[in-house]
Amino acid sequence: MKAFVTGANGFTGSHLIKLLQQKGHIVKGLVRSSSNLSRLEGCEVELIRGDITDRNALRKGMEGVDTVFHVAAYVELGLVDEAQMERVNVEGTRAVLEVAKEMGISKLVYCSTIGIFGDTQGVAIDETFERQQKDFSSAYDRTKYEAQQWVDRFAAEGFPVVSVMPSGIFGLDDPHFAPVMQLFLKKRLWVWVGGDRVTGIVHVDDVAKAMILAAEKGRLGEYYILSAGDLTTREMLNILAQKTEIPLPIEIPETLVRFLGNGFDLIGKIFSWNPPISRERVHYIYDRCVRVKADKAYQELGWQPRSVSEVMLEFLYQD
Asked: What range(s) does the NAD-dependent epimerase/dehydratase domain occupy (predicted)?
């Protein structure tokens, strides 16, 4: 396989590139001129510099390539640049699809998200679920949903694209979950919120494995949910606490968190700051619950991820 990976220097993209290389595949990757390339240190990858909407850069990246992995995305909650998020997530996906079709790419694997299904209200759903939520929980929720609509449109026209839908992606270099776990293990996580919040969990290397399997075995136009299972935030920390005997931090009451979210929203808008607690983040913590089943990936792709306990315990053995 000769592959082209968008978002090559990102968390998921860099792990995918390393696994592709381990398997002997030739890899090209798209990065911005300002990108931090530390995640790609030691990788033998041909880097194409350009924006995700730069069709000339995309053509250069896809030249001589048979498989495209579209991983690039703007992932953030709270007070975000919604126009920029739409440009990256929606227009970027459209550009990748159009250029891939133009270049005659034989397979495109799109890294979507379980969030496209909307709030499932705690019910575990599979790929056949039709979104019930009429509105959107965030700009990220909306733009990833709209991007998926473009992917589905191209699939309906016969373009060879497969979508994978990861749940929460974990790993030692994960920019979202790992810092919290590391603070806990350093005994510096003194307070926390949302102990009952349910999160689907999958290791970043297992996402990379699934994407390669989707390129090899995935049926065109199909969705494949990727999740090893789910845990509440309390259960996550308990797994680490039982091994380390570190006590759980104090949980801030929900009423206070909601009050702080409203207040920080106002401050953030005044000072152009995305606070750690905002109205949108509070909504994700207490009001929205997306649960999924990954049976289809197990059965059709032969995917075998590590367990949720193994994912969490990896944080104990980092250098």
From this structure: 4-221
Cα separation, 36 vs 164, in Å, equals 26
SS3 content of the chain, % helix, strand, coil (to 5): 45, 15, 40
Distances (CA, A) of 62 to 84, 89, 104, 245, 270: 24, 19, 9, 51, 43
Tokens representing 155 are 């699939």
Instruction: Find, among 203, 144, 180, the residue nearest to 12 by Cα.
Output: 203
36-76 pLDDT tens trace: 889 998 888 999 999 999 999 999 999 999 999 999 999 99
Q: How many CA atoms lie within 13 A of 257 on its CB side?
A: 20
What is the residue type of 155? A
* CB contact at 8 A, 211 and 169: no
Residue ranges of the chain with per-residue pLDDT less than 70 = 318-319
Topology given in CATH for the domain delimited by 2-168+200-227+291-305 = Rossmann fold (3.40.50)
pLDDT at 164: 98
